[in-house]
Amino acid sequence: MLLAAVLAGAGAGAFAQHGEHSSHEPQHAAEHSALSGFYGPYPMSREASGTAWQPDAATMEMRHLRREAWDVMYMGFANAVYADAFAQGPLEADFRFEGRGGEEFFVESMGMVAARRAALGGSLTLRTMLSLDPALVGDDGYPLLLQTGETSDGITLVDHQHPHDLISELSVSFSRELEEGRSAFVYAGLPGEPALGPAAFMHRASGMDNPDAPITHHWLDSTHITVGVLTGGVVLGNVKLDASIFHGREPDENRYDIDTGSPDSWSARVSWNPSPSWAMQVSFAELNEPEQHENPPVDVDRTTASVTHHRALAMGYWQSTLALGRNDKAIGRDTDALLLESALRLRNVTTLFFRVESADKDELFRDVSALHHTEFRVRKVAVGVVRDLRTLWRGRLGVGAVYNHHSVPDIVELFYGGGDPDSWLVFARWRI
After folding, report:
1. Per-residue pLDDT tens for 380-402?
2. Long-range Cβ pairs for the range 259-263 (8 Å, 24+)
3. CA atoms within 13 A on the CB side of 102
4. What residues make up the domain containing 400?
5. Cα 137 from chain centroid (whole Å)
6. In the chain, which end has fewer C-beta atoms inside a 10 angstrom radius, N or C?
7. 225 in helix, strand or coil?
8. What is the CATH number of the domain that holds 105?
């Protein structure tokens, strides 16, 4: 059940004699000063998902070991979740049941392994990210009120979050230092993550403790699983310029294969870490028909901007992220999204977190409804807590809970039980 447990067990059995770092405490940048980043001469703690940056001061939720010429890093988690996200409403012709969302038990997971070595006067990195969501979450994903995007069995998912693919990243990158503080790099992923948006939600400390995906996901970081990514960039001290070409269509409904497609989309991003506590980025992309079953197919121009602040504390850390996204569709109106999230970790065992979101949703009703493509401004507030209880299988076992309040326009309330719906979930987490 626990993909990350398999990774941890393999790493412990094969590499413990070669210098594995075995502490369960988060590791700060200063403790990894011997390791530079994947793409340039900066602290490894700056790395996040794809080629995105986080603050240098951020903790590293991963293990590190050395095997001959390779530096190996790995991380992983599994959440066993019971979610009550059911909103009783009238029977709708475009839904398979009366009501939205649902009550469900599911297990979401992710495991990542990166291996790096010196090569050709620079640094070569291989990275893969895997998830057992296709088997343990299922085709329809998990209930998540106000979430939209992607499909299952030819039907657009509404009030559900799609499962991640079995192979979420399979990438290779090469970087070479040009002069002090500067470097150039290339990154290729099948799949991978282009130069677009902030670090994906499951990789940033401000959001990773919440088992739910943000409802702003498809404005900010839905491209973290993308077909045929090729990125090039330069690092100029605390500034990074990178650009990508890739296949813009989101993953299809077969979660076990690796999708293919020719490059038809592009993106560009400017990132800036003005101090160890801050990470900022602005990015733009032209996406070719990203939604699988939108009729007619629609191209999207996506713009994002974000700022992340990380404050290291004697007893833990406090990280916050503010992000904005806009989707400018070739057909229809522009839609905007706003996310503010924060996580406070205390004594490295308890994390308090919240997330506030606002989004213009035009997919809350499927295409057989008269309200399809009608734009509604929706909001969500989530508050939660998770506490680590004990070590287990070379990781940490914890329990947590999240309460969500959703706000929808009056005309939409009828379909969510006649008022602003609430939902909640409880979960057990195992994390390396």
Report:
1. 999 999 999 999 988 999 999 99
2. 259/191, 259/227, 260/190, 260/227, 260/228, 261/227, 261/228, 262/228, 263/228, 263/230
3. 16
4. 3-431
5. 16
6. N
7. coil
8. 2.40.160.10
